[in-house]
Amino acid sequence: MSFEKQLNIIDYSLSSIWRRRFKSLGVAVVFAGVIFLLASFQMTTKALTIVAGDSLAAAPEITIQKMRAGRQESIPVAYQTKLGGIFGIRTITPRIWGYYFSEINGANYTILGLDPLAMPLGDQLVHAIDSNRLPKEHEVVLGQGVRVAVTSSGSSMFSLFRPDLTSKPLTIAGSFKAGTNLLTYDTLFMNVSDARDLFALPAELATDLCVTVANPNEVPTIAKKIAALLPDTRVVTRQQIQKTYQAVFGWRSGFASICLLTALTSFIIFAWDKASGLTPEEKKEIGILKIIGWQTSDVLTLRFWEGVIVSTVSFVVGYTLAYVHVSFFEAGLFRPILVGWSVIHPAMRLIPAVDLGETLLVLCLTVVPYLAATVIPAWRSAIIPADSALN
Amino acid sequence: MTAPLIELEKVCKTYNQGQPNEVRALRNIDLAIAANAMVCLQGASGSGKSTLLSIIGCVFPPTSGRAAIAGKQLARMPDRFLTIHRRNTIGFIFQHFNILPELTVLENITLPLMPLGVAPRERKERAGRLMRMLSIGHRANFPARQISGGELQRVAIARALINDPPIILADEPTAHLDHALSLAFMEIMQELQRAGKTVILTSHDPLITSHPAVQRTIAIEDGEIHVP
Amino acid sequence: MFLNSWSVALTLLSLVVLILTTIAVRTAIRVLRYWQPASDSNRQIRLENETWLSSTLVQYAMGFQVLSLVLFVLAADNFSKVISGAMCATGALTANRYGMVVLLVKLLGAFLYGFWIVLHSFDISSERYPLLRAKYIALVCLLPLLVVDAVSQTLYIANLKPDIITSCCAVVFGEGGGNDGNLLGSVPQGLLLTVFYGTALVLATLGHFLFRRLNRLLLWLNGLVWFFFIGAAFVAITTVFSSYVYAMPYHHCPFCILKPEYCYIGLVIYGTMLPAGFFGIAATLAEFIPASIGLEGVVSRFQKRAVLLSSILLVIFLVVVSYHYIVYRFMGGEGS
User: For residues A131 and A173, is the Cβ–Cβ distance under 8 A?
Assistant: First the structure.
């Protein structure tokens, strides 16, 4: 089939779509809606994955947690010494962290006690704080979400309560910058001794141990050695956390895709119905085309291009709307499904990544079933006999 | 002596062959039409006239018998090749013209050229020549639903001529036209015949059957050619 | 790992291709049983109409199969992000024994659909449809391959184990599937490149002679050399050229070149190499059409066009695939 012939048939397809614009528009609008839903999910998943990946870049390569009866408990700081013989470990830093429930606003704050200077590049943390200094003893740096909650009175001091309900006063040393919200929004960052005091944790214990490694390629090997030396611990690598995030987002997105398949199926049935329902005028038109010299294959090509044009327009519209939805409305329709529930939700800017893979994925979930569904109706219209124009 | 342009020998056409509702539309039709002739087919509804027209028009092949149209045997020719032969050989003018009302006059006329891959410029040129010849050039960009009955008739003729086919088939062309337009139509047909075309008309209209340009009238009755 | 958008899309695509082909095969069986070209019965007319349906379905199925192939590779890259030890698509594809099987079956399927379409175009060029029976027998034989495609893909996805944190203990390290980054063992670069470019030169020469004058022996040779070249090209891309695209000497992955960070150069590379191979082999397979059925003119016209097209695509492929290698070797690294 020559190129010129294809162009002619495309020309006629456009004219045909225009002449049946209400029918075509109906199909295109519904189709764009289905594409919008699927594309929004995909883009949100991908954007969250990227955000999660970026945020995890700062996490330690290996985290060691002590387990008892399948649950995490505080780890003896002395376990560090058992790991002294493992070649390739740069630093081992005890970390104290936990959750603090605020009865005032019903939120769980994350308390983090860490000596950043004990970790590689830890001195860079000051750049994430608006006051450009790390908290000293009895001082705390607040995440943006916490700051709003505790500084409503305008004071630079506030108190938290220890497990025995005695109050622990803390001075605000600064706030994390808004750009770190994903990690710090609900965080109170203090030094290790203050965190230990707040949670009444004995001096010999910590929540977990952060291990940094000189050579990233050595992480699995070192993790394996640690697991062998400390059998009562759970050893988690950063890569595993990344893959877990990816898998969780993937599951949720996959689950949503399956749910949206019902919407897609309904649309396919609708599209089949629309494609099959030829009016007497449409049948007459095919008969005329056939008798004046259009072959069955030409009419099939005509229907193919009609399908491609409608689905392309729907795809572009649906995909663009999905992009706007994710970029400018932070995927407001679907975020709760993917991000989860929390009283304090960091405001994060989702930037949808548009690449060939993601586009092809949405195309395969939407346009392919649509084109497949229109083949048989297209064929039925193409085999209308030429002599029907003579009757 | 040159071979006839249209030659049918013991042509039969049976619909629903082997089924309880089998219909023998044509029985042993023998017909020869020379090139450059103007012939009128006459027959009542159900006589087999449309079936005969369809076979001459290469719309479908006969069930049995020999049918040669412009040198090509039609017997069991696949639809694909029938269509190719039809578009090169036959120009159809339908009873109700069958012009697509939403398309422009130009688009209607050039419709047969589109699957041939003819470029828009050439389509416009070829259609332009015909439109000028038929005095409808000024209507080129009008939607067909906006033109008069006489102009529609000429659009139908132009569409039938766009591929320069040797045979023109007109099925009851004056059934819905007044006397003046019917006369005008026959004048155009006569011109075409003088220019070398073979014109085959089907009609009950006495204006056509008794027109001096019609060289021969063939009557069909019950699927057979009726010789009075 | 079915609960994943990529898995859903792949499964849906396979299902669509299988359904379309099954309907086409149904027509094929009916045609093989009842076809009577001399008959004017309603059944024969219906069958003639159905031949259009079957050819359209196969064309659509071929398009979707090609899409499925590309999607599968991109999905594998996505799966690698959750599989232990897999850093890219290579790791994901070798995570279990089904990955590479699926890839090869999909590729074979795309080629076979293409050959069928060529056969169909020969058949409908003659009024007698001389290749009708052969065509539909071939179509029936294609169906088992698609079933293998769908089943192996399902097994592949089902056997993927995402590497997620367990609640109680450390996951055993270093035992993740995936021979990551090294799909093939090392091959001496100099020898490989000599074979690669030497074969390409042979193909270009054969193409030149065949375009001027078709010769049965040369056609057969052309087909066989193309068959060999596709394999050699894949090895060369994997072990040599890809590293230069990535600017990483130990990254030998034939799939990462499809990613946006490498400007989708893989699409151009495979988008020229595979069609070139297809047309080259198709020109040879056309020799199987017997001369007695009256299609010599159509077949020889196709062979000339196919040979020309494969030669043009071969040249484009060579230029694109060699670009990074040449830039590195002769200009001292990635040039601007």
Answer: yes
